Amino acid sequence: MTCKLMAAAAARAALCALWLCVPALAAGTEGPRAPRERDIRRAERILAKLRRLGAAREDAAEFRSLTRKLYPGLFVAVAELGQSDLKTDLDTAVFLYEEAGRTWDEAGARAADCARERPDTFTPLCRELRGGTMRQLLLSKARLHAAWAEAAVRVHKGEGDAGTSRALAEMRAARENDAAIAARVVEALKPLEGVVKLPQTYADYQEHGALSRVGPERLDAEFAGALARAGALLGWMARSPTFYALRGAWRSYADGLFWYRRVQRARSLVVAAEAFEPDPQRDLGRDPEQAGYAAAVNWRTAVKFTRLAERSLSPKD
Fold first, then answer.
1. Is 172 a member of any domain?
2. DSSP state of 212
């Protein structure tokens, strides 16, 4: 097989890998549905395990022991739920508890920065800690989402009270704000479409070769600003289908930038006749042509994820 055919095959494989998760995301863009009866039963089992994590609080040995027993099973259990606000809150709680366990020492040594937190939900939690740590804040966030999920289960079972109603009202208000935050992420990412070129096929890329409509320095600056703004906002969102679409867009833009920089670095190498410099692409098993098309594939995927998120935010008839 020639080098060009190998490059085309590698690029097609990369594109297929990037798109494996899109059908699942697309299925969830119709908006949250009421949880199914079997999902309620599953949710109760998940909540029982989350209550154990929540009760451990600052006991490092107990928390780590529990996380070793409960993960990755909790991720799998949540993934099996049908899409609903209940799943979104359980998903978010599970990831927050996992993050607290994974970063236990580091987060415990770092003060929570309330000024950087989401104003409607996380800033109040942060202030209640009165100078607490990032680990304490992560645990508080996880308990909040678990409480919203528990309220949804109680209402479904006809066991709601005034406190349950307040929790659900808070959750619904937070979901509306999630949509507003998601729209800001889209606004941050969409300008990147104007500075990159998106060849639709490997042959198009081979013929034209250009990946950017602007110079490398401007492209770096545009990406740095957009990814920083979008990344900060993504950290505020619950783990809904829209969140996953936008995170896919963010990661695809970042991955494409990685390969674009590799191409630029390879092109800037000045190889003297007496002293041959190693090509960084060769060390990664790719030549610059493959790396360039990998950038294009990632950026095309980023645009598709962004469109998917936009559709999920569009008013439904």
1. no
2. B
Report the half-sphere exposure of 24 (CA within 13 A, side-chain side): 12
- Number of independent structural domains in the chain: 2
* 178 within domain boundaries: no
* Torsion angle, alpha carbons of 258, 116, 96, 228, to 10: -10
Q: Which of 160, 193, 218 is the endpoint of a domain?
A: 160
Residues 106 and 188 placed together within one structural domain of the fold: no
The phi and psi torsions of 133 (rounded to 5 degrees) equal -95, 165
Do 19 and 93 lie in one domain? The reply is no
Residues 183, 230: contact at Cβ < 8 Å?
A: no
| Mean pLDDT, each 10-residue run in order, the chain (317 residues) | 40 39 44 81 98 90 94 97 96 97 96 96 96 96 98 94 96 97 98 90 77 91 97 97 98 95 73 43 58 90 97 80
Distance of alpha carbon 56 from alpha carbon 128, whole angstroms: 19
Task: Note if the pTM is more than 0.85.
Answer: no
